[in-house]
């Protein structure tokens, strides 16, 4: 029974995009199915998603922050400069109404998405760098997201920065910390790998439930204003996400990153934690339901586009095998150098 659940969890993770879109379409025709996904319930569900992220993190993942501070700093700056800046630009270029503007700004001001690590792995990116960026952006989100929303969206509506700070702590930092603690104390227990195997499917299910709740909340507005509203909002989300990928790659190029790092920072910058944006929109802008629409579309589209981008990177690798070999050699040399440095460091300390 347990093995079947783990297999189903893996299958669900591999087909996450189709599952989330399927739930969204289903909810559009049966909007009352997810009426219960509101307020505190939505917050708890996102907390479960972040808990699953914490269960996969180890102390080694956090050591990356100390070992590669410059890389992580560049990545975090790119994350919280590019995406909020692009969101603010698109709000004015598309002349978005206040509710939709708040939604896209929220997505832009949130940290990186929890599935970006998987996408980095699939396209031969720098997975350690990806994990480090995800950790860093999540840790600073309670401060950066409210401040950026105050700066960019304060003219549209009053922003409860303190409340937003507390909410992000509750739905991100605490669940991730609990997950990390469980991993630290129980990772060697026989049941723990099985528990970790169930987490991807649980995470996808929770994300689909959040999207279903959002579609339920905005259903009447979508029906009243027609297909044009959806297409217009999707166009903004598409531009926001695509420019994030592109500008993230150029940020890596300006920083002198190798191919793997450029791919990783591109994905990390472009893929946002739209689930967090959804919960914040529901908790702080409930009077304007359309704020949820860009968040819901981003939840589904970022997974689709991340998969597409990873596939494009892999297709490029197939067409340029010599460049791939050179990149692998460079990465191996860097890993060898870092390992040698760590091995020599204790001796250097003892000889002093």
From TrEMBL:
Protein's name according to its UniProt entry: Bile acid:sodium symporter family protein
Instruction: State the species of origin.
Output: Hallella mizrahii
Transmembrane regions: 12-34, 40-58, 70-94, 100-120, 127-148, 168-186, 198-218, 230-252, 264-285, 291-314
Topology of this chain in the membrane: Multi-pass membrane protein
Per UniProt, subcellular location reads as:
Membrane
Q: Which GO terms describe its cellular component?
A: membrane
Q: Which InterPro entries match?
A: BilAc:Na_symport/Acr3 (IPR002657), Bilac:Na_transpt (IPR004710), Na+/solute_symporter_sf (IPR038770)
- Keywords per UniProt: Membrane, Transmembrane, Transmembrane helix
